[in-house]
Hints:
The complex is a heterodimer of chains A (233) and B (484).
Chain A: H1 3-13, H2 24-30, H3 37-50, E1 53-58, H4 63-74, E2 78-81, H5 85-95, E3 102-105, H6 114-120, E4 123-127, E5 130-132, E6 137-140, E7 156-162, E8 166-167, H7 170-176, E9 186-190, E10 195-196, E11 204-205, E12 212-218, H8 225-228
Parallel strand pairs in A: 1-12, 2-3, 2-4, 4-7, 5-8, 7-12
Antiparallel strand pairs in A: 5-6, 6-9, 10-11
Helix pairs in contact in A: 4-5
Chain B: H1 14-22, H2 25-45, H3 49-68, H4 70-84, E1 86-91, H5 94-107, E2 112-115, H6 119-123, H7 126-132, E3 136-139, H8 142-149, H9 166-176, H10 186-203, E4 206-209, E5 213-215, E6 220-225, H11 229-235, E7 239-245, E8 249-250, H12 256-268, E9 275-279, E10 293-299, H13 303-308, H14 323-326, H15 331-334, H16 345-356, H17 358-361, H18 373-377, H19 384-396, H20 416-430, H21 432-444, H22 456-459, H23 470-483
Parallel strand pairs in B: 1-10, 2-3, 2-4, 4-7, 5-8, 7-10
Antiparallel strand pairs in B: 5-6, 6-9
Helix pairs in contact in B: 2-12, 16-19, 20-21
Amino acid sequence: MSARESILAKLRAAPKTALAHPDIAAHYQRFPFPDDPVGKLRHWARMMRSVKTEILWTDATHWPEALAEWADHRRPASLLLSDTPHGHQAAAALATRPTVPALRYFDSELDGWKEQLFHDVEAAFTRVRCGIAATGTLVLWPDAQEPRTMSLVPPIHIALFDTTTLHGDFHSAMHQENWAAGMPTNAVLVSGPSKTADIQLTLAYGAHGPRDLVVLAMLPDGISPAMLEEEGA
Amino acid sequence: MNSQPVTLYPSRQFKDNARAALADTELRGSLRSAMDFLMAKRSSAFPDTDELDALRTLGEAIRQRCLSRLPELLEQLEERLTANGVTVHWAETPAQANAIIHGLVAARNGTLMVKGKSMVSEEIELNHHLEAHGIQALESDMGEYIVQMAGEKPTHIIMPAIHKTKAQIARLFHEKLPDTPYTEDVDALIRIGRNALREAYLQADVGLSGVNFAVAETGTLCLVENEGNGRMCTTVPDLHIAITGIEKVVEKLEDVVPLYSLLTRSAIGQPITTYFNMISGPRRPGEKDGPREVHLVLLDNGRSQAYADQQLRKTLQCIRCGACMNHCPVYSRIGGHAYGTTYPGPIGEIISPHLLGLENTRDLPTASSLCGACGEVCPVRIPIPEMLMRLREESQRPAGEAVDHPLRGQGAAASTTEALAWRAWRRVYASPGTYRLFGWSATRLRALTPPTQAGWTQNHVPMTPAPKTLHELVREREARRKES
């Protein structure tokens, strides 16, 4: 008998009890995250900042400029972009500045240039699928254009986030977007730059993944950065 | 020469290990402050007790439902993963699991494996097995990396190096890593580890990881972590092997939402970890990175023994948060090494007998004061004290006694002296005449009480009978009342 058959036979021989699947949605209805766009954004920002995330409030028109200003200030030596409309928009905005980081598109399989990715790329710019307010989280859905290593290997990850996709909690993100109908090769929830407290419980950022996480958070009409940063926010 | 592998069971020396750990003041200090910190963090992560109660009840219900359909869910998981391009392997024993993993690495002539955190890989002693075949297995979780460099084993399932001070780690890095200056600056120490390990991800032929939840509905392997080493191990090398116990399967994708929340909040008091990594297959055509091959090894190793018994099955609800350890008065004084098992603390006391047999773990069910803290904090409401009582019973049950679900090592803790003592006790208490005679002689001959009384006098003053029995005292009082 194979190991598979033997294990399954042992489990099948065990006593059976019929138990219903619990109502998970009901739990999140009982303890919902308040559905107020400004409140959600404030909480999301507070949570993300508590784990060393830099948030740049912007909008759908001005984000390339915000990115270029950040690059002027931070001066990354190199920036990895995706071969996508937003990747090209970013390149165009950066090209107008006095100091342009070395730009590279993720346009070929990683196997041929793994070493360069590890040694020569300081920052990478990707889009975000959606956000989660309760825990201060970004959801990444890597694909052929924006591969998984972009948000992992370079020391700085810059994420473009449409804040109208911010969900209250993880359950509503998964439920409303019907993730169970089709998962990508790899989906990742990201809440801050990589960190560890493995040495004497002392928190240190930049464990193995990015040291810095910068979010270009695009606000819709009607919500201004001032509304999110008010006293007591 | 025909050499036989020698298997050592440090868990057999639990009492000696515990005594040595108690005498280690540096260890006691590290543990105390770490456990106080983790308990405070957990408590602050659950400010609303109604929500905590409801979430624990939900977590328990999900785990019990999934276990009730375990064989079906494992088959569904296999089917979905296979459809997604992942190869599923089954192993009944650690030897089988090691052989499968070694075979996969050898097929590529691999020489370097980078490992994300996986307790199951520790359970099967994978690193030793691979090293014996000339394959280096490098731990990449910072805590595991430190522990491996020191030639030790993790002392806590979430915080592997919690027993070490930063000075000890500074010394270790300085001595073991070339050109590394001595520094106690934690950021600098992490940077040293980061740089060394980044080269390893780049060079490694294979990445190995554990699994926190395996979703049958979608064929998704979920990994919980803060450091990003898990993502590195599962993304950068061309071959990814995941290994997990058969109990980790959940039915639906939404099942992971409450379980993940319970896990991070109970373990380290974080609302969420930095990464929640959901892997549903190898690199697809057109994708530019990710492993081309993904394998999952499903390990039994005694779990089906726990499954066979409806009471002990609850052991398998565990989501490995470690909260029971953090709150255990025994664990927090002796630390993880003393248990001599992969899983220490209360959860280790109830899972290890299934993995290793009671003959190798007979003292573990008694490593508890039954204070109940572990059961109270368990995010999936495993009644750990009840399990401990049951395992104590099984470890004392005569080896030959026929029962429905015999446990490996039944009767391992039974001692002839103890059995004789109980037989004598039963005889005395079953007959009033003998009882009176025993009471009279015990009180009158109290001066002859032995000063050492087996285990009792190790930590207590000797028990000495009173000058008169309770019956005599009551009779005398009644007589006085009548007189007055």
